[in-house]
Amino acid sequence: VAEGRFTASTFFSEASDYIPPKYCQYTSSVLILCLCPFRPVLYVERCQRHRWRCAEVTFACPDEALCQLWISSIREQLAATTSRPKHLLVYINPYGGKRKGKHIYELKVAPLFAQAGIRTHVIVTDYANHARDHLKTQAELKKFDGVVCVGGDGMFSEIIHGLIWRTQADNGRNLNSPEETLLPCSLRIGIIPAGSTDCICFATVGTNDPVTSALHIIVGDSQSMDVCSVHHNNTFLRYSVSLLGYGFYGDVLTDSERKRWMGPARYDLSGVKMFLTHHYYEGSVSYLPARDIIGTPRDPGRCHSGDMEWRTIRGKFLAINAASMSCACPRSPKGLSPAAHLADGTTDLILVRKCSRFDFLRHLLRHTSKDDQFDLNFVEVHRVRRFCFTPRHCQSDSDLELDLRENGKRQIFSQICRDHPACGCTPAYSSWNCDGEILTHTAIDVRVHCQLIKLFARGIEEPTVFEDLTNPCAI
């Protein structure tokens, strides 16, 4: 019924007016009132690896009227809890992942919603961006307490694009202006993982388990979340909540799109291929350092203040990544930026300069170990509120002329090779990987909007919460 340890003493303190202690008996794990008839009470039990499960405890009472009083009291308290949703709009992607989204929802999630008394309006999507378009134009949002997506990160991206667009349009905001202050969305979003990649669910809950996510929705958890808007020449492109990656991760996504027939295995193959090709890209990154925040990407326990002046870095990069969350996943439990915050209005800008294949491999392997992945001389990380990237071929004529003077004829022939990639030299530019979607432009302006959306989640709980599993923890 409420969060906390479920013990006999807690129950007696609340039920002493009704039940004499002599009628009560309890074990070390579950309190039971030993008489009949009985009625089960469902609660949430924490399990290992951040998983939650629905459990039940049975109360027995000699007086049916008193039993009904208990039931009425519990239902009144639940009804008075405003954080718990009562009516949800559910979108199911039947094609994502292993095409089991509809089956997962009907078998594992719908029964839990029914037991919790949650009404649902379910829409099974028919085509790409079906959910986005429906949210933008047709959905009667005032009827619902939240929106649930059953699918992967792509489905979640559809939901946030539709919900954010609808919120801003209803309030007259200009989405094409990177200077516009966007209004937070009022409806919370739930994620039932059922896709090829469920990075966002894993990084906000700690596991890709549909039952756990459903229970977070039922108990009414709420976790604010930052969203990055991506613009090109004052034109809106996309929103991002997890990873913006140029260079290595952009190339991996671009190559994997040609291998969709392989399923999730395509990411592994493309990753190996792009590692071996070892492309680097020239350009400049300008960023606005975060100010008055707690912690840095290297040390979340200390506070380093920046200033409000733009800073610019030019060079040759194997990868330019912006992580608005840890981007943790089962293969990389720490993620790209372990200390990234979900709702502080910043993103962690990670620059990996040109280095040897061996050094780059060291950097990649540290995503799966406990070593500091930023403690390498070719890697630098900055916590920023906004940044812009300009690839070298988009720089001004004066910048190009300066580069030519400095590098001479070698630079001229190098540029010719990049314009003709058949020779095997490094191509002129990469693509941006925006939460698993390829952006159509390379020169971008990225701004972080603090706590623009809310999820039915509470962030990854500390391991100490799960240490004592001999007694269930009721929520």
UniProtKB/TrEMBL annotation:
Gene name as annotated: LOC101075523
SMART domains, sorted: DAGKc (SM00046)
One record GO biological process: ceramide metabolic process
GO molecular function per UniProt: ceramide kinase activity
Record-linked PROSITE patterns: DAGK
Name assigned to this protein: Ceramide kinase
Gene Ontology CC annotation, any one: membrane
SUPFAM superfamilies: NAD kinase/diacylglycerol kinase-like
Limits of the DAGKc domain: 83-234
UniProt xrefs under InterPro entries: ATP-NAD_kinase_N (IPR017438), CERK_C (IPR045363), CERK_PH (IPR057465), Diacylglycerol_kinase_cat_dom (IPR001206), Lipid_Phosphate_FormReg (IPR050187), NAD/diacylglycerol_kinase_sf (IPR016064)
Pfam families in alphabetical order: CERK_C, DAGK_cat, PH_CERK
PANTHER family: CERAMIDE KINASE, SPHINGOSINE KINASE
